Amino acid sequence: MSFRVKLLLVFTLTVAASVGLVAWGVSLSTQKAFEQFDEQRTNAIVAQFRREFQQRGTEISARVRAIADSEATLRMAIDLSRPEADASVYVNDAHSLADSSQLDFLDFATDDGTLVSSAEWPARFGYKNDWVATAEDWNSQGAFLGRVDLADGVDLGLLSVRVVPVGDKKLYVIGGKRLDKTFLSTLELPAGMRVLLYSNFEPGFSPDALADASGPVIGADRFQPLIEKEQQQPGIAQQRINWSADPTSAEEFTAIPLQGRAGDLLGVFLVGSSRRELVAQLAFIRSLAIVVGGAGILLGMILSWWIAARVTRPIVRLAHAADAVAAGNWEARVRVRGRDEVARLGTAFNKMTRQLAEQQERLVQSERVAAWRELARRLAHELKNPLFPLQITVENLQRAREQGGEQFDEVFFESTAALKAELESLKAIVTRFSDFAKMPTPEFERVDLNEVVRSAVRVFEPQFSALGRPPIAAEFSLDDRLPLVEADPVLLHRALENLVLNAMDAMPSGGTITLRSSRKDGHAHLEVSDTGEGLAKEECERLFTPYYTTKRHGTGLGLAIVQSVVSDHAGTVTVASVPGHGTTFRIELPVEQPRPMQSAPPARREEAAS
Amino acid sequence: MRSIASRLRAGTSAAAVVLTLIFGVAAARASTRPKVGGTLRVELSARVATLDPRLPAALAQERLDALLFDRLVRFNERGTLEGVLAASWKSEEQDKRWHFQLRPNIKFSDGTPLTADIAAQALAPILGTSFQVSGSSLDLVIESAQPMPDLPERLATGHNFIFHVAADGSLAGTGPFTLNEWIPDGAPGRAIFVENADCWAGRPFVDRIEVSFGVEPQRIEADFEFGLADVADLAPADLRRASQRGARTWSSKPVELLALVFDSQRPGVRDVRLREAIALAVDRSTLANVVLQRQAVAAGGLLPQWISGYEFLFPTAMDTGGALSLVQSVNSARAPGSPAPAPLILVYDASDAEARAVAERVAVNLHDAGIAMQTQPAKPGAAPADVRLVRVRITLPEPRAALLQTFVVLGITNVPSPSDNGPEALYAAERSALADARVIPLVHEMESCGLGATVRDWMPLDSGEWRLDDVWLAQNADASPAAAPAAAPTSPAATGGQP
User: Fold this and answer.
1) Model confidence pTM above 0.90
2) What is the pLDDT of residues B264-294, one digit of tens each?
3) Yes or no, beta carbons of A123 and B289 under 8 Å apart
4) Which of A194, A548, B100, B152 could make an SS bond with B86 (beta carbons 3.0 to 4.6 A apart)?
């Protein structure tokens, strides 16, 4: 990972973390604000319900009082206070009075609680409402919650009782309004809120007892824990109900217990607040945060990239220049701007490469001089050997000419033969130098390396067992699974001949030449080992230098040719030698020749050039 | 010795008294003399869909039909039969064939002469297929495979009207009025009848009768109180209030039976002990005196006391303890651990407010006896009910005919006909009919209405049948309640007092 990428990552992560932190904070604070708002709204509804409840109670008390204070009721009370009063006359009065007073419930009862007339259950006249005859000062009491028995069940009502005294007799007027969906529908609720009423007429939870302003509630079972909690311990309680997997379907319900005069739980008022708006707003804010955060992060990345690019550009240039230098381009320089540490580094680099180039130039010059000297020495050495016989032969020929006679012809023929032989020798020397100077370009084809090895050895097999020479044995350890290698068989054959010849020269007392082939890491490996005296470390280091030889009659070109051939095949050749135990040359060749690479980017080339 | 002056004074005073008496009697005779003309306004709570006698309907339609059509015979004020369109009648072949000799020279309101053939065409669809009705000239013959000893009585009540079907399908009658306007679908419905000047029995006293039907009880009460209705079909409570205010009211004798009729095939009421418990648990007295505001009497038997003479022998007292014992015995017979029985379903006529009140009170009484009962109005297609609250109109004053008529209406078929017309045989038959408590009589209700101050000669029959052709309207000056005479002497409860 490049320095620029690392820097970019650090910048990006920093920006992303910052933006995410801000978005999370905003989302959290928004959620908290919404929940506070929701709680306030619920509290407002609860307060509204209580006010409404109180107001309804006041209204009902006023209506019942008006009925109790009416002349008709007074006449009824007086009439019923008489002995043998006929109460049947009034059996239907409650119904019409309830209608005119807009009351759902209206009962008239004598002082022992016997019903004279009932609006909500007319057929129940003559039966007793025992609770009303308890010695309570009803006229000083307000409305209260109570159960109202009906022909088809029980209802929850907000009731008020007034007493009309006549002498020592009383007439009770019991009136009230039903707490049901109609009552719920009269409550003004903000959007997203609804109210439910649970009529607690059974010991356990009954789904049918739960209703909202539109009637029975679907999924009433979900309220069971909340209702049961109220049944066990009445009090304000809350429960969130998720109606589906969609979080917007959730509602937060607040339960308000409705208790009767004796503190018994008669009903539960449930204020539901939809979380749809809250969840939608939060989702919107979250989406906004994601978009803004994403945009921020993107902008941060762009800025980070720009900053990282700006910061790392000199370093990248420096790295490219270093690569160029490593690749041998001693002229590579970096452009220096500013005076910061990177600029100083660039200046130092330029100075260093300049010095290195100068030293390299000097080294090349000295090596070139040394090479020329070596070449001159080698040429002198090579040429001196045939020149001396030539000189001797010419001097013999001159002497034979001076002596004349028959010996001249004999000497002449012998001398010209000797001259021709020496000239051939000179010509061979020149040819070898010429061949080295003109190494041909490889022509690649699929080659069986093992076959090349065998053919190279086969050339020298007659010399391994030649008379007058200690025998040399050739051993093969060739990998048959070696694939065909893309190579020039002629050049490769020539290189191997040089190595075999080199091994033969290294074993004047005979020995064993071992040839191995193998495959490793997609490369073909060849080894040529001898059992000669081996080489010193210094010899190994200079072994591939052209014209360097450890032999008396060597030209110093054999291993140079080997290296040249191997290099032209994108391979490497190394030498390992243990003095006294022989030497091993290892050639590593790619199975496939690398394809020509695309040209380097211009900027890089420019940078490298600079 | 008295002086001449004193004698003169005495003579003058006596002459003044005599003159005063003469003018007073003359004035009184003038105020009670029937007057012709005026419009009688009638308001009925029941809705009337048609006036065609061939289509069975309730009492309100029958009352309006009686203005347009005549029957062959009718009951008079003494409860005996008298001829209307039939001049005479006789039976043959052990009452299997009856001959009715029609009065001659009677024409329908469309001018068509009354013949036995037309009368036969009118009666045939009303009597049904078990009767063969034929006519020739003025001799109407009604035959049946079974003896029909009560046929004239039957023809004196109900929808057995004689009418003529015109070519356009309209009906013409021989009654005292003809139909002038008919708006059955209004709110309320409205019908106007005008006097039939050519009526064979003479023209009625009033020129017009304007009938509003399907009127809300509250509006009837208000219209009656403000003098906007001359004859008002008041609800029992309204009638009682009107009576207490001093307004004129009229009530018939108890002529309608309200009874519980069980479907004994239903598992919930199959046990006779449960039905007996229900009979004991019902507080009939309260039903009659409170729910129906004394416009009914507790009923232990099917026929009212005024018809049968033996109804007092049937018990009517509530016995909640006895009912509870019976219910406990029923419950103890149930398998242990079996679920509680479903509430019994009691249905009543949805258009009958009094029936609803009675049904609800019965349910309350049964609750005390440990019997759960739900009341609901009868609806077409509703689930079968365990018990029905049935209203039976008993129109025949003759006990045997009335009992048999009641048996037919209540579906009592397992009781043999009484051997004779004696009260012992009728009592035995009725007792046998009530023995299995499949039918439980509750109350006998009266028919009643409020009468305006100007209404005169209101003389309905004991059976509750109105006779509006006899009614006339007094002038406003004569219409004070004090000047209003009592209604027909046969209606003892028609003086504005308690029934």
Assistant:
1) no
2) 888 888 899 999 999 999 999 999 999 999 9
3) no
4) B100
Measured torsion, CA atoms of residues B9, B10, B14, B20, in degrees rounded to the nearest 10: 40
**A287-291 mean pLDDT:** 82
Give yes or no for A538 touching B (CB within 8 A). no
Q: Are strands A445-447 and A485-487 parallel, antiparallel or unpaired?
A: antiparallel
User: Could you tell me the end-to-end alpha-carbon distance of chain A, in angstroms, rounded to an integer?
Assistant: 25
Question: Which chain B residues contact residue A121 at CB under 8 A?
Answer: 360, 364
The whole-angstrom distance between A91's CA and the closest CA on chain B is 7
Select from A502, A496, A519, A504 the least CA-distant residue to A565: A496
B478 touches chain A (CB under 8 A): no
DSSP 8-state secondary structure symbol assigned to residue B302: S
SS3 B268: helix
Which of A121, A125, A151 is the closest to B290 by Cβ? A125
Task: Chain B: give the shortest CA distance to residue A88, in Å.
Answer: 5
Architecture per CATH, B254-446 = Roll (3.10)
A152–B374 CB contact, under 8 Å: yes
Residues of chain A with C-beta less than 8 angstroms from the C-beta of B344 = none
Distance between B477 CA and the closest CA of chain A, angstroms: 33
Cβ neighbors of B207 (< 8 A, separation 6 or more) are: B36, B37, B38, B39, B194, B195
At the second CATH level, the architecture of B70-167 is 3-Layer(aba) Sandwich (3.40)
* SS3 letters across A588-609: EEECCCCCCCCCCCHHHHHHHH
As beta bridge partners, residue A584 has A529, A576
In angstroms, how far is the first alpha carbon of chain B from the final one?
Answer: 58
Does the beta carbon of B498 lie under 8 angstroms from any beta carbon of chain A? no
Q: Is B78 a residue whose pLDDT tops 50?
A: yes
Q: Give the Cα separation of B240 and B234 in Å (integer).
A: 9
| Annotated domain spans of chain B | 34-69+175-245+452-499, 70-167, 254-446
All structural domains of chain A: 70-178 (3.30.450.20), 182-274 (3.30.450.20), 341-435 (no CATH), 439-590 (3.30.565.10)
Task: Verify whether the Cβ–Cβ distance B290 to A122 is below 8 Å.
Answer: no
Nearest residue on chain B to A88, alpha-carbon basis? B290
Ramachandran category for residue B95: left, alpha or beta (phi over 0 → left; psi -120 to 50 → alpha): left
In this prediction, residue B490 has a pLDDT band, given cuts at 50, 70 and 90, of: very low
CB contact under 8 A, A89 and B240: yes
Give the Cα separation of B42 and B229 in Å (integer).
Answer: 6
Q: What is the pLDDT of residue B11?
A: 59
Task: Render A529-589 in DSSP notation, one character per residue.
Answer: E--S----HHHHHHTTSTT--SSSS--S-HHHHHHHHHHHTT-EEEEEEETTTEEEEEEEE
ipTM of the complex in this document: 0.72
The dihedral over CA atoms of A551, A553, A555, A560, expressed in degrees to the nearest 10, equals -30
Whether the Cβ atoms of residue A464 and residue A512 lie closer than 8 Å to each other: no
Nearest-Cα residue of chain B relative to residue A126: B286
Q: What is the pLDDT of residues A491-512, one digit of tens each?
A: 899 889 889 988 888 888 889 9
Spell out which residues of chain A touch residue B360, defining contact as CB-CB under 8 Å. Answer: 121-123, 151
Dist CA B148 CA B404 (whole Å): 12
CATH superfamily for B34-69+175-245+452-499 is Periplasmic binding protein-like II (3.40.190.10)
Token representation of residue A368:
């070139």
H-assigned helices in A82-189: 93-101, 181-186
